[in-house]
Every structure is written in C-alpha cells, then in structure tokens.
Specification:
alpha+beta, 9-stranded mixed beta sheet, 3-stranded antiparallel beta sheet, about 35% helix, globular
Length: about 450
C-alpha cells in the first residue's frame, strides 16, 4: 500500500547516541511488490480478462476509468474490505497491474464505485443512474467450469470431481439467512466442486436446504464441459454422506459417471458388519492398537433407492469404542477392492478441506451485503482470486519449495514485498526490498513464468 507525505515526525528510543526519527515521506512505496508475478500469470492465462468479459457495462465508455480486475488483485494481495480500496485507489503498483495508461495518476476504484458494482440489479440497463454494471452469472459459472487444464495429465484415464458444502456464518439480516442446526448458527451453505486443486463451482445457497441441493444441475454443466474437452476420460463424483442421494446416484448411472459417496450408518448397515465389528474389538483388546477390518456387500434402502448398489464397510475399533463407516460406489471390485477403495480412494477426498480453507484465505466468507445476488458476486471475486493464485502455483511454483503451499503462505512469502516505485515517461522502476529473504525463490518463479508463452 502506498504512503503519502506527512510532516508529522515520530520519535523513537535512540540507538546509543543516534536519534531515531520516522516520517511518512517515503513517496510511492508499496508492500505488494510481488504482485508483479500475478500480472505475469494473467498475461499467460487471461483469467481476469475473461472474468471481466462476464460483465455488461452500461456506463459511458468515454468516461470509464475503473476495471473489475482491481478488486480481484486486491483480494489476492490480502485486502478483504472494500474500504481498503480507498487507499489502494492511489497505489501506482495496482495501476500497473491493471494496465492503467498512466500509473503516475492511477485514480483507481474506491469503495463507493465497488459497492455500486456489487449492488447492480440483474435487470439494470442504461437508464439506471448509478448501478449499471451487470454480471452474467451463467457466464462466470461457465468460466469456472472450464477451469481444468487444457489436456489431462499424461496417462490419466479418470478425473475426480469432489463435492462439499460448508457453512458461511452470517452476522446480520442478509437475504436467505437461516439457522442451521448442525453448525449451530445463522449461515449460508455454499457448494464447492473441485477437480484436484482446480475450482469448478462456487455456488452460494441458503442453509435451509439439503447439502446436495442443486448438485446435479452443477454436475450436468461441468460434466458437459469436461466431455467436450476430454471426451475419452472417465468422470468420478466423490463426496461425503451429505451427497448420497438417489437423484445424484441415478443421474450418474444414467450418464455413465462413476460415484464414490459416504453412506450414513443405520441399524441395518451395522447389522451387516456385526461379525467384523466383534473381530475388530477382540483384535483391539489383544493388541491395544486400532483394529480395522473391511467388508463389501450389496445393499438397497427400503424406500429411497431405486436399485441395489455396492457398499464397502469399515469395521473399526478405537480407544473410544466402535467406529463403523460406509461408502456406496459404482466402481467395481476388481480394480478397487474394499480396503484400497476406502483408504486410498475415498479418504483422499479429505484434501478438499484444504481447498475450502484456501477460499477463506481469500475472504469468501465476506458475504455481508444484504442481498444473496451481491453476496454471490463477492464469492465469485474470491473464487477468481483463488484461480489466479492457483495458476501461479501451477505455472510458477511447480518444483519449488512452495509447490504445495496454501494461498496465505504464497501471499506472505512471495507477494508481500516492500518496493519503491519510480515512474518516468518511458519506464516503471520498481526497487524491491534489498532485505527480502526469498530472492532465489522469486528469481526461480520469474524464470518459470517467463518460459510460458504469452497469450494476452
């Protein structure tokens, strides 16, 4: 963030005989020098350009100065509130990132402009006085849904779509606000779909619904995009017991999509593995260590399921007692026997929890506007910021010490670099802090990005 000249001098305890005085007169200084790497990523993938194209701007084109990209860069660099942009609007580095023609006079978007952007109605037109930048939500969904690599990894025959819902706590009277008994507070219940680290869906929903509500509609859209790009690759849907619903499984079976879902335990299921649970308990009592046995069988509910399906059970005994778990799947036993299916395949979905935590690192929970539509827009901004950082991780951090780092670590170690900015008619000079401790890493990432061809 830039500093402005201020004549007030701060006095500090001297160092031996030397006085220590501080003053806000350093000129154009930023704490986000590493943001230049994000600009290099954007020049190669164009995610922000594509996101901006999802907006229809009814303002007078001759008077337009502000761009959607400003808010995404702000989130990626750690500025969660619109209020932060009252200072960022004078930051010459952010002006460089968003391609301002004259970064010496940036005049970027402030909080009021961004607030009008968020609160524009779906039906807005040129007749509106202030709020007339309309977002096409379907276009953003299509952009995110096509966010997987242009080609599958070498030898890959299957891609996995991980589904999960989480709580987004609310502290006001937002539209669509409901109390959720499981989480114990008022919240939204956003739905996320990931393919590995690639975010394909971020749907904000009211919390008075089932966790799986709307998931089939999202999967239809994403599966169509995947098959258009990768026609020969199989698709597997993976989720916890909140997504084990007849509608979803029946759709998967009809569309040739595999599924691996948690199955909520009941008395009938526990009776199926009573013998295995007894054996696990005896083994635990003998060894004092966790005992785990597996069994598979076919199962059908009495009312809700339309057919019998393969179920794999884990009969586990811990120090605290029995811990039975069940999953239902369309995968056959030959390539995936019971134990491998559960331990290697199903449990791997736990990594999605890390991806959801990364959304919070990009302030996806800042859904504090009154309307559900504008809060969905905020979620989109956070999602696009995540995609930008994920592209940095994929293109620039592969093979480095930050190859698997989370967004907050990438921001701290690679983006938050102090720098002095000097702008002339022909050049922008950015003097990065000489005491920056990760110079070799920065150079390595820069070289990797420069090796990727420019597209924009």
């Amino acid at each position: 963030m830039t500093t402005e000249c201020n004549q007030f001098v701060f006095g500090f305890h001297p160092q031996k005989r030397r006085e220590i005085r501080a003053q806000f007169d350093g000129g154009a200084i930023t704490s986000d020098g590493g943001g230049l790497l994000l600009r290099e990523v954007e020049k190669r993938v164009g995610i922000l350009r594509q996101f901006a194209a999802c907006f229809t701007d009814y303002r007078n084109a001759d008077l337009i100065e502000h761009q959607v990209e400003e808010r995404v860069y702000g989130l990626a660099l750690g500025y969660e509130d619109l209020n932060d942009h009252e200072e960022l609007r004078n930051d010459p580095l952010l002006a460089v990132l968003v391609e301002k023609s004259d970064p010496r006079n940036p005049v970027l978007a402030g909080k009021s402009t961004l607030n009008r952007l968020e609160l524009t109605k779906e039906t807005a037109s040129r007749k509106e006085r202030y709020k007339k930048i309309v977002l096409d939500h379907g276009a953003v969904d299509h952009l995110l849904g096509g966010g997987f690599p242009a080609s599958p990894p070498r030898g890959a025959k299957e891609i996995i779509l991980d589904l999960d819902a989480t709580d987004d706590p609310l502290h006001g009277e937002q539209e669509g606000r409901f109390f959720h008994g499981c989480y114990g507070h008022y919240c939204y219940l956003p739905l996320y779909i990931f393919c590995g680290q690639f975010l394909l869906c971020a749907r904000l929903r009211s919390s008075n619904i089932d966790a799986s509500a709307g998931s089939v509609e999202e999967l239809k859209r994403i599966a169509a995009q995947i098959r258009s790009a990768w026609p020969l690759v199989r698709i597997l849907v993976r989720g916890d017991s909140g997504f084990c619903r007849e509608e979803l499984m029946a759709w998967c079976e009809a569309e040739g999509v595999d599924y691996l879902l948690g199955l909520a335990k009941n008395e009938r299921l526990k009776a199926e593995i009573a013998q295995e649970m007894g054996a696990a308990k005896a083994q635990y009592q003998e060894t004092g260590r966790v005992a785990r046995l597996f069994k598979e069988f076919v199962y059908q509910t009495r009312e809700s399921w339309s057919c019998v399906r393969r179920v794999v059970a884990k009969a586990e005994h811990l120090e605290k007692g029995e811990n039975p778990r069940f999953v239902v799947t369309s995968l056959s036993a030959e390539p995936w026997p019971a134990q491998a299916l559960y331990e290697e395949h199903y449990c791997a979905r736990g990594d999605m929890e890390n991806r959801i935590k990364e959304q919070l690192m990009l302030f996806s929970d800042r859904t504090s506007t009154h309307y559900l539509r504008s809060n969905q827009l905020r979620l989109y901004f956070s999602s696009i910021a995540y995609v930008l950082l994920q592209m940095l991780r994929r293109l620039g951090l592969a093979g480095t010490e930050l190859a698997k780092a989370q967004c907050s670590t990438i921001r701290l170690k690679l983006l938050k670099i102090g720098a002095l900015i000097r702008i002339t008619v022909r050049k922008v000079w950015i003097s990065l802090a000489g005491g920056y401790p990760h110079v070799a890493l920065f150079q390595q990432v820069h070289e990797k990005l420069c090796a990727v061809p420019l597209k924009y």
